[in-house]
Amino acid sequence: GTVPLTRAVAVVQAGGIVAVKGIGGFHLACLAGDERAVAELRARKHREEKPFALMARDLAAADELVRLGPVEAALLRGRDRPIVLAPRRPGARVAAAVAPRSAELGVMLPYSPLHHLLLADVGEPLVMTSGNVSDEPIAYEDEDALERLAGIADAFLLHDRPIETRTDDSVLRVACGRPLPLRRSRGAVPSLLALPVPAARHVLACGAELKSTFCLARGRRAWVSHHIGDLKNAETLASFQTGVAHFERLFAVAPEIVARDLHPDYLSTTYALAREGVERVAVQHHHAHLAACLAEHGETGPAVGAIFDGAGLGSDGAVWGGEILVGDLRGFERAGHLWPVALPGGDQAAREPWRMACAWRAAAGGDARPLRGVDETRWSAIARLAESGVASPPTTSVGRLFDAVAALTGLRLEVTYEGQAAMELEAACDGAERGAYPLRSVAGVLDARETILAVDRDVSRGVPVGTIATRFHHALADATAADCAQLAADRGLEIVVLSGGAFQNRRLLERTATGIEQAGLRVLVPERLPPNDGGIAFGQAAVAAARVGE
């Protein structure tokens, strides 16, 4: 039940879990250095491996956990008070279960009076993770929290100020010397974003499925919502609908244009199609990524765009995810892409990276033997599935290529959260390695088959995983940079956009950007919006405004 501050401190210090009411919702808190408490929190919350965020009392305490550069320190101290990802210090007193297989920790500072009191009295850093069961929206109303979190929290620490809008913590990391948002929410929303082409009529853009946000726009003003989550269940969809209605009232927007993704099965698409009395605009997923970055920087294009992510429905009905585009706010041309391979079992391949290792090996003519840890019968069945094309649509996904390499190295055969294999492959990189695997571009197609064979050879020779991971990152970055630079030269363009969820990877982003800049081109990277699907809605709004204006 609810307890006073002194009792909550005692519960935490004794290794318990406390639900703490904040500004945008509830957190679940326990001692960051207590392995048993962190493991218990994981078990109760049903969050197997995804990293937990930490809260430190002040900047000095945060600096004992992670290495802070001037940009990270400024972000932590800023009024937004986001979670900032930074390299963990080797001697940090943090339980291993806080962030398994991660080279970074996500740290934030107190941003409410109750946080300051709690951290001061406990005297050491706390895990401060969202108050929910895995995949559910964060709890933000007292009664709901007391009911939903009763099986997780040993005690509840409340205050008497009601929370109007459910809002998760914002998350950033630093790349290319600048902030790179991974989740834009509390503190950053509802800040105004300007559209380079004004919306002649009021616009609602419904975003995508994962990392859902929506966007409202009128004239040059656009408001991107807080992070809502993955639209997989009724609770999250209800949160989406409530948020749209709230923003419409708050900003006096009555949508006449509703923009949506091409994917017919997204719940955001279902919502968009259900709106009555509006004109609808369908925007291809990767074009929306390109448009979002252009518009954020006040540009209208044309530009070259390397848009790399997990999946998005292409304009040809295929599963795209490794796209080289030439386009502006109104339209685009697909000028290149990653070599397509089978996606055996569809969405199941994203949950079992070994399937993508099997598909890429088959495409490259590589070893037919199963990976260690994979049953031979299952491997053979997936190999046949990939070869036949049954339930195995072709995909150009860079996210699934990362999955394949992570599986080949033995890092990750199955995942428990989206993007896990790619994150762990990045974390495994050896900073001292300078080599790169071959990765050719032929007629705009990035052909990674030879890369996969080189990875397999190094694995069989016993080359360290860190070396293999780095050589793979360098290969993809160098080939992408060369491809974009050549395309820009051929088209007489000066701007290259790097976006999509794969460019949350700092090593990939920085090396690709450096290669393009060395060719004398201007590189645009998302800075106020995430490169992942959290920026899709703004891109859709920018495209809708430009098309309607035309």
Would you mind describing this structure in some detail?
- The structure is a single chain.
- With 550 residues, the chain is α/β, with parallel strands linked by helices.
- The chain contains 18 helices and 22 strands.
- The protein has helices spanning 5-13, 35-45, 59-63, 70-77, 113-122, 142-148, 234-250, 267-274, 285-296, 348-351, 353-364, 376-388, 398-408, 420-427, 449-460, 465-491, 506-518, 536-549, and strands spanning 18-21, 26-31, 53-55, 83-87, 104-108, 126-130, 155-157, 171-175, 178-183, 192-205, 215-224, 257-261, 279-283, 303-313, 319-327, 332-338, 341-342, 394-395, 440-442, 445-447, 495-499, 522-524.
- Strand 8 (171-175) and strand 9 form a beta hairpin.
- The radius of gyration is 23 Å and the shape is globular.
- The N and C termini lie far apart (59 Å).
